[in-house]
Amino acid sequence: MAGVRSGDKPMGFVAFSEKYATEEACREALFHKRWPHGFECLECGRRGYIILQKRNRIQCNSCKHQTSPTVGTVMHKTHLPIRTWFWAIYLVAQDKRGISAMSLCKQLKVTYKTAWYLLHRIREAMGKRDERYLLAGIVEFDDSYFGGPRGGGKRGRGTKKSKVLIALSKTAGGKPQHLKMQVVPNLRGSTIGAFAAATIHQNSTIQSDAAINYRKALSAKWLHQYELSGACGQSLAWLHTVISNVKASIQGTTHGLDSKHLQRYLNEVCYRFNRRFLEHSLFEHLLTAVTNSLPLGLDVLTG
Description:
alpha/beta
């Protein structure tokens, strides 16, 4: 997981606009992100290449295969200028609360649909990047409910809102470290166990409340500590604070959120939280995530 740094300042608006003033500058930066150790042909693996300037393509000297830095990424087959992508990534990286699609469309001078699609593809890349890491050490664990209210629904377990499992690792000193959140279909033991296995290292200690569905699932591979009171006082204090902040952010930034796309918003929340001490380089981190994430088609988003 990303380390903790401090002291550096994030790239300002003027510096960013000067560094990435042209489409060529953005394309070159994207090339180096895609192939940080030098170009390798996606077909034959050879390194020699030429640039076809008029087509903005890279051609392998050996097999003549043509490609570009956007192929196979979330920018795959994009009709937008690379510079528009860079500005979208920059604006997403700069807003600590998360930027809405409406705000993004106004700043980029694109349609709402385009801004919405851009934002979801960036959030998808955030989630894919964080999938590479497991939580470790002492991990607070709980579930919560997100989404707009529905008529007749009741609070707590049993509500019709989207169910979300949350895990938060802590430092040796008890400070919050890294966060994972996952929308789940139910809160059965098998679902809880699958989420824990995918997100938490087996040598970790998991702290939770005394919910029955947690006990067997979380004691199978981890040291499970829980409070019999059910109130879960101070042991989950950080996790409950995070949950409260996320819900406030959803209401403040997106003014409610369709449950269909909730996971991608949670991807962004976790990505920002896990890199909260890396503001000075968040654009570079996010550009790397976008460059190394697989395509996300509009049919997947709207289907």
